[in-house]
Structure prediction request, 258 residues.
Amino acid sequence: MLYREVKKNNDQLSILGFGCMRLPQKKGSPGDGKIDEKPATDQIRMAIDQGVNYLDTALPYHMGGCEAFLGKALSQGYREKVKLATKLPHWSVDIPDDMDSILNAQLGRLKTQQIDYYLLHALDGRAWDKMEAMGVADFFSRAKSQGRIINAGFSFHGAEAEFIRIVDAYDWDFCQIQYNYLDRKNQAGTKGLKYAASKDLGVIIMEPLRGGLLGRKPPPAVSAVWQEANIQRTPAEWAFRWIWNHPEVTVVLSGMND
Prediction:
């Protein structure tokens, strides 16, 4: 496994992160999000044994069941081997006290004393304005001083200009953006990636395969270019390597289930 450093805290994170949004589900229960815990636990622990040390989840994943599952899957010493990330859903915050209540419940489900990487979930400009007015900066500072979270960040689904504004609005430790070779000018895009890195933020990449789209057989014109390479690779390999070739990227998340 290869690792890259988060400049603000010197953490060495595996360049491949385990996204826990698409874990194996029980047969006969499509759509209800119920995790098939035995294969999911085996996969997560195998990844950690092979050097993956960044796990990403969120309160809504698997219909709200993912955090509690990870609390069990990371028992027997596995919690100490990873940096664990989860997210604060801004849409569930109606009053400032909700932020503390949500975080405390997440700590309980995850069976941990602290969240290593805590994100505001799926921000755009409007959501950030709401959370800023709610006092989220004070919440982060308090949660950090109490040791409930270590690093504060945000995941983003908005326009490039909104991303730049949010980066400048708070002393973030890291951020998470959608990025792949189709999304160079979509959402934060390449400009946002480089801007965040210029501020020494760790940059976590989501949707490297666009929900699996870029892992499929490509159009003939793309195949023809790839076939000229000395080393032949799968579409997924090309997609991941394209992102990793950006030195500004810290971790690429994959929602793995096989």
Remarks:
- The chain has a mean pLDDT of 96.
